[in-house]
Amino acid sequence: MFSDSMMLGGGRKAAFSIANSVRLDGVADYFTRTFGSPTAQGRWAFSLWFKRSQIGLSDRRHIFGGNSLSDSSRFAVFIDTNDSLRLDWGGESSQIVSSRKFRDVSAWYHLVMSLDGTASANQDRLRIWINGQRETDFAAFNASIPAIVSFNHVTQHFLGSEGGSGYFPGYFADVGFIDGAALDPSAFGETDPVTGSWRPKPIGNLDFGSNGFHLDFADGVDLGNDVSGKGNVWLPVSLGAADVVTDSPTNNYATINRLNMQSGLVLSNGNTSANGSAAVRWWRSSLAMSGGKWYFEMKANSANNSYCGIGIEPVAVTRNDGLNQYPGGSEGGADGYGLYTLASPPNQGIRHAHNGVYTDIADAGFNNASVMKVAVDLDAKMLWLGYDNTWIGGGDPAQGTSPTYTLSAQVSDWVMMGCAYNEVTCYFGASGFNLTVPAGFKSLCTANMPKPVIQAPSKHMDVVTYTGTGTSQVVTGLGFQPDLVWCKRRDNIESHGLYDSVRGPTKMLYSDLSNGEATDTNGIVSFNANGFAANGAMATNGSGGNYVAWCWKAGGAPVANTVGSIPSTVSANPTAGFSIAKYAGTGIAGISFGHGLSAAPKFILVKNVSSGNRNANTMDWMVFHTALGNSSQMRLNTTEGKLGPDAGMWNSTAPSTSVVTLGNHERVNYGGDNYIAYCWAEVPGFSKFGAYTGNGSSDGPFVHCGFRPRFVLIKRTDSAENWRMFDAARSPYNVVDNMLQTNDSSPEALGNANKLDFTANGFKVRSIDAGTNSNGTYIYAAFAEAPLGGAKTVPAKAR
């Protein structure tokens, strides 16, 4: 079927839309069918979209397989206890285990697997693809693959379990099996030409063969109905119409974010139910809100609904792991709002709260069957809290009258937040609502989110890896002509090299040194339409060397800018929030230069490019970051923590939508010296600049970006640590642990102690290390590989 939410515009045809999925509880839900005689047992293809809801489990959870657990000839595909995808056949000694960790619970994966028993090469017999990309990196590949396995023959088969055990917790959608052809992913999906995200395509016209089937879960009464025309119906076990939801690979719904909740909280029901286990434990939603009108609900699942609540708070809030944190409590900061219950009936009480200021509601009529509700209009900055047929304050969201609270105009990104003492269920819209939704308000899902300003991040920022030749080489692979190329050799000690179009090719700076600009005709010699050209310098193109280049598009040839009190030469890309500005210092505090963007920069790198005899410390790279404030700064080429307060850098003045203001310090404003400034403003769905507080746990902080990251830079601010650089080109799957450092010429640290998971909606810190996650404070800069979603935008897939 097709959906208006997926009409892509721009002359493109509408993308195929999957309307439904089935939610499996991981306790007793599964499907089973006994196959008949196959068209070809040794040639088949299997396609399934899945969304995980639990990770780090103590036992394996099965996706599909044939024969029973006790049968040594069984074939089983499952997520193991290390969150890897694993295949067993003919006993556990014959197995394939992925290196990829499947720990992204925010979005959907697409799994395609095909068997071609006639293939001569062992690795080509059983092939696996995730989101359209073939898996070639395995933690184990332990045996030769036979021409046939115990799948697709006359025996019992399973979806979501194996023989009544190992139940899969999460969601399945659009399951297809082809008997008789070893198809690749192009039969089941395609790359969206704009976002670059993998998306489904119709499969109804495929030749399914004798045992083939297609489950679309559209009929809640007949969940196992085969719509392929082959009549190969599956038997649902412990499943019914209530398990059919509209959360799907083409319209991803909010859930409780398992990666951003208090330890000890027990989630179930596809991460829509939460149980605090007799303690008040908090959670946050997997999707965020920025603009628009949104509605959601929560209801207790037992007679004791004490100490449960819902509300909203800024995305930027980092909560600690302490108990008794309520919506609207002081832990949520000055801009947290919420509604929660007090003691259980018959002494029931309910209160609403903002920044730790609580207002009790007397004789509320709230009872253990009541439904709590939230309506928020972020454009009008209004919030209504209520229950059943009551809005607190007597307002009407549909009419925009008498909100419970007026929101801060300073916050642009919000998440849903709540707490639970006993079990509650949250209603985000995938399974409908209990009450009437106010007119104009929507459920939080990717199809209802605003269309991203940038649907194709790779046309503005990207990362390429390449092998050096030692002679002239043209590096391609970009979707734009770069204006800033930041190179680093990965396998040897070499300084970073930064080249930009404002200073011109061959003009090199070093992020790990305080040196001024150097001219290197063996470095990068041109910026090309889809990459750059480099000669044989060791820093950029040494023979046999492994390299990475982080690249940004500004505005091409620079132009004069006279907006500030001093002139600047600027190449600007306001759409992507990036500009390069060159200016001459005066030594006078309070001067300003124009940056060419239409929004205030949140992240700025400034470097003195002149050569002279001054103290090297006056030549350091200076960093402005919005989380540091306008009186503090850091140095990109050192390990130091936050410096300041010091008006000498930014004159205690935040950048405006047109200019950057400077103090009189030599590092940013020495009379007669030339400076280069790389300026980034935040663009929703493309870039994010913020801060988080570490927790010193392997279950580290989660940072919501609103996109799947391509590049992340992290720096500790409260003590000395290196600037850590991570990207999806060098770490194409989770775990992301191939690290470089802006202030260090050392080679890449492979599989290092600083570990992240990139997810469809941000990143999760997965290690205990002072550089990314001790009990300290950190700033970050992140850029997108794919937007999380939005109107007429294919949602990002799980990583």
TrEMBL record:
SUPFAM superfamilies: Concanavalin A-like lectins/glucanases. Residues 457-787 form the DUF7483 domain. Signal peptide: none annotated. It comes from the Bacteria. InterPro entries: B30.2/SPRY_sf, ConA-like_dom_sf, DUF7483. It holds the Pfam family DUF7483. This is DUF7483 domain-containing protein. It comes from Magnetospirillum gryphiswaldense.
